[in-house]
Amino acid sequence: MDDLKKILLAGLGSIAYTYDKSSKFVDELVQRGKLTMEEGKDLSQELKKNFKDSSDKISEKVLPVSREEIYEILEDMKFASQLQVQELKNEISELKEKIKCLEEKQ
């Protein structure tokens, strides 16, 4: 769950960084006279709206996932559980022992 939160925060951080850089770029264009003040304000408002929309979409997709839903997703993806992995490790150990015994008999 912590990894999922880190991914979410990284995504939001990337969006915030992009928004910040874009806002500074718009300000520079206005200062250079490449955009009028009104165009700069409109562009800044559009950037702000896109930032909010992107943040909302990420939050909607990631935050509501419960522990049970994560387990279901992992099960659907055919990921092995810790118990299954441990059982396989035990079985491998037993097979190694049997092989070792067979080799010693020869």
TrEMBL record:
<feature type="coiled-coil region">
    <location>
        <begin position="71"/>
        <end position="105"/>
    </location>
</feature>
<keyword id="KW-0175">Coiled coil</keyword>
<protein>
    <submittedName>
        <fullName>Polyhydroxyalkanoate synthesis regulator phasin</fullName>
    </submittedName>
</protein>
<dbReference type="InterPro" id="IPR008769">
    <property type="entry name" value="PhaF_PhaI"/>
</dbReference>
